[in-house]
Design a protein that fits this description.
Chain lengths: 272, 371
Amino acid sequence: MRLYALAVYLFLYIPIGIIALFSFNAGRYAAQLQGFSTKWYGIALNNPFVVDALHTSAVVAATSSTLATIFGTLAALALPSVRGPLRTIIDALIYIAVMVPGIVIGIATLIALVTVFGWLNPLLVALWPFAEAAPQLSMGYGSLVAAHGLFAIALVIIIVRARIAGMDRSLIEASDDLGATPWGTFRQVTLPQIFPGMLAGFLLSFTFSFDDFIIAFFVAGSKTTLPIYVFSSIRRGVTPEINAIGTMVLAVSLGLLVIAQFILQRGRRPTT
Amino acid sequence: MQPDTDPPIAEFRATTKMFGEVGAARDLNLSIRKGEFLSFLGPSGCGKTTALRMLAGFEAPTSGDVLIDGERVNDLPAHRRPVNMVFQHYALFPHLDVTDNISYGLRQRRPRPAAAEVAQAVEQALETVRLPGYGRRRIWEMSGGQQQRVALARAIINQPKILLLDEPMAALDRKLRRDMQIELQSLQRSLGITFILVTHDQEEALSMSDRICIMRAGRIVQIGSPRELYDRPNSRYVADFVGKSNFFAGTVSRVEATGTALAVAGGLRIIGTAAPGLAPGQTASASLRPEQISLAHGTTTADGTTCVPVRVVNRIFLGEHTEYLVQHDDLGAFLVLVPRQAEASEGSFEPGEPAFAIWRDGTALILPEDA
C-alpha cells in the first residue's frame, strides 16, 4: 500500500521535477543534462513573444481577480440577507460556476460573446456619430477578463462567505453598542475580519487566471497568454526555454497558493 | 440608589417582543432606578436576554415602549443609545490590541477627542479594572478573566447611563467568578452607574443585586430585593428559583389571621403564612426552606411545632452546615439543613437511621400552584 502511494506521488511529481531540473540544463537538448546554467531563463525573458504573453497574462489575471474580489466580496456580504428559494438558487449557481469544466465555460463564453458582438457591432456602425469608422467589439482583453472574472467571482464568494459565517456576530453588535455608525462598523470591524478571506480569494483567482489555458484558448481572440504561448511553442518541440517558463509559472503559482493557504490558516486562529 | 420618587433611568411599559409566533418577552412593566444594581434572573429562554437587548437597542419591541432617561428609545439604534454592554463571550475585537479595544467607544465620538485625552482615559480604565500595563497586549494573549476586565473597561470608559451585563460570569471558573462578583459590586458602588445584569445563576443574583426581577416564559413573575424574594416569594416558582426549598402539595383547609392551614398527605396539616387570595378548598403548596426544619433523635410535643418521624436517606457535608435528605412515609423525601452547632449538641445522623423532623408552625409559606 505504501509502495503504491509512493508510485502515485512519483508519477505525479517526477515530470514536474524534471521540467524544473532541465530548465537549468546548460545544453540545448531536452533529453540530456549538460551542466548547470540559468541562461535559458535569460533567453526566455528576452524573447519578445514571451514577454508580451507574460504581460497579457499578468494584466488579465490582475484585472479579473481584482474585479472578482470587489464584486465577490460585495455579493458575499449581501447574501446573508437573501432568504428562501431565491437563496437556494443563488447558492447552487455559485457552486455550479466553480464546478463547470473549463472547456464548457470556454465554449459557452465564446458563443455568447460572438453572438452578442454579432448583434452589437452593426448597431454600433449604424449609431456611430463620427466620420471615422466605428470601433468593433472583438475578443481580447475584455473577453478574457470577463471569462476568468466570472469563475473567480464564484471562488471569492465561497471563500469570503466562509469567513463571514465564521465571524462572531456579537463583534458587530459590540461595535454598534460602542457608538460606531453602520459604515464605521463595516470599516473598523467587518472589513478587517473578512480581509484575509478577500486576500486569499484574490490570490487564488490570480493563480487560476494566470495558469488557465482552456478558457483562454477559446476567448483570447488575437491575444496570447503565457499558457497559450507555451502550448503553441511545444508544437515546435520542447526546449529548455519552455522548461524555464514552465518553472517560473510553477514557482509563481505555488508561491501564491502557499501565501493564500497561509492567510486562510492564520485567519482561523482561535481568538478566545 | 436613589429614592423611588426620582424619575427612573429606564422603563419598560407594556413591552412585548414577538419572534414570529413566539413571545420572547410579554407585557413587561418595570421601572429601573438610577444607580441601582438590578438583575434579570430566570432559566434560559425566559426572556431576560431579550429584555436586555431591547435596552441595548439590538431588538425593537413589537408593542409597548422602552424608555431610557425619560426618552422613548424604541426606534433609536444601538449606536445612539447612552448605554453600553458587556457581552457574554466579551466580543472583544481580535484584530485590535487591548488599548484599541478599550478606546473604541471614545474614537467613535464626533468631534473626535484628542489623542492624549483618549490615552489618559484608557490608562484610567485599565487602572479601574486592575490591568495596568496590559495596554499593548493582544486579546488572545489574555486569560478569560483578563478578557472580561478588558470588556468591562471598554464599556465603562464611555461613562454610560446604564451598564448592561449579559451573563458576564458564565465563562469563568467558580473561584474567579466569586472574585469578579465582589469586584463588580464595588465597581458599581464607586462608579454610581446603573448596572443591569442578566443571569441564570441565583446565587450570583442574590449576592450582587439591589433588586432582582424574576422572569419566566417571557413574563416578569416577581420583582424585589433578594431578601424579599427569599422571605416572601409570591409563587412556588420564585421560592424554587431563589434558594432551595421543600414543597408539599395539599388543599387549603383553613384561612385565619393567625395562619393558614394546608392539609397535606397522611392527614398532616402544615401551618404557614399564605399568599393573599388563597381560599379554603384551593390546592396549594407549602414551602419549607431546609434551614427552617431541624432534626432530632427524640420526638417533641412542644407547643407550636410540628414533629414528624423520618428516615435519613443521605447526608452531604457542606462545611458550616450538613444537608440531610430524609424520607417521610406520606410527605416523601425532603431536605433538612443542620447547622454545625446543632449537630454538635444533638449528635450526627447516619443514613438509614430513624429521626424526627421538626419545624415551627407558621414558618411555612403557603403558595398557590403555578399557572
